What we know:
The protein has helices spanning 6-14, 17-38, 45-50, 61-68, 72-84, 106-130, 132-146, and strands at residues 59-60, 88-93, 96-104. By secondary structure, the protein is mainly α.
Amino acid sequence: MKAVDPKQIQELRQDHTGRLLLRAYRQFADTASQKLQARGHQISTSAIGLIPHIDLNGTRASDLTDRAGISKQAIGVLITELETAKYVQRQPDNTDKRASIITFTEQGMGLLQDAYEIKKEIETDYEKKLGKHHMNSLRSALRYLLEPEE
């Protein structure tokens, strides 16, 4: 087996595509969270991260577990946080008495509106940094990478 160079391994760990995408996502999420908090939305970054997984017409808590890729217990904590902040509410699932549907409240819809405006602000900042051509290329490349393979 070839000798391992710790310095080279460390450089490889930091500069591969997966790590760069993760770091870019975290930076986007942290910036969005700070801007939401500046607008008066006092919820954790983790709870904010659950928002995109909730459909406008409601989503089962069990589906949120799959979508977010975290445990039932963690989903329960985040839903409770969002519920306490009055962004979502639990409603009975008419098709399964054991399940509940998580829906946005009016205040939650306001959060979504603020989040959309903040997303546009961040994208405008990215476009200033990258230029319109590179920003369009970035979006196109990401969409292409996310297409299912045939």
